[in-house]
Amino acid sequence: MAHRTPIKVRFCDLDPYGHVNHSVFLSYFEVGRADALKQSGMSLISALETGVQFVIARASVNYKAPVTTDHEVFVTSQVALKRISTMWSQQIVDANGQLFATAEIKTAVTDTSGKPVLLSEDLKQRLEWLTC
Predict the structure, then answer these.
(1) How would you list the strands of the sheet with 73-81, edge to edge?
(2) In the CATH scheme, what is the code of domain 3-130?
(3) Confidence check: pLDDT of 125 > 90
(4) For the chain, which end, N or C, has fewer CB atoms within 10 Å of the first or last residue's CB respectively?
């Protein structure tokens, strides 16, 4: 099941052409992942407090259409769980389903020193509802 996070397009997100700057899409995707984790009962801060962090290992974005301040957009997020990583499949869409961008984001799960660690059973259970 995909989680859906509303995104407020801000004036500072725009490039000189009035479109959301391509680099800002990565921030939107990050907001979507953080919100999905929070809805799973684990914020990025609470994960860090348990000694776990999610480090971006790879990010691939495909831009489909420009986003402007006229658009109300949402980030949809799903995740595939691996042994020591997560693979997030995300999209930026509007309420009518128009697709603006897709992303594949791989995060390594590490301890606070950056050493890869196995996904805990607790984390797997929390994220199960988001699996694709």
Answers:
(1) 3-7, 73-81, 85-94, 99-110, 53-63
(2) 3.10.129.10
(3) yes
(4) N
List of residues 6+ apart from 111 with CB closer than 8 A = 51, 52, 53, 117
User: Given the structure tokens 């801060």, which residue do they identify?
Assistant: 45
Least Cα distance to 100 among 13, 4, 22, 11 occurs for 22
For 16, the token pair is: 């000189």
Contacts of 118 (CB under 8 A, 6+ apart): 83, 84, 109
**CA dist list (Å): 113 to 15, 53, 105:** 37, 9, 21
How do residues 16-29 score in pLDDT, each as one tens digit?
999 999 999 999 99
Strand stretches in the chain, DSSP E: 3-7, 53-63, 73-81, 85-94, 99-110
Q: How far apart are CA 55 and CA 47, in angstroms?
A: 12
User: Per the confidence metrics, is the pTM higher than 0.85?
Assistant: yes
Single-letter code of the amino acid located at 46: S
What is the distance between the alpha carbons of residues 25 and 6, in angstroms, rounded to a whole number? 13
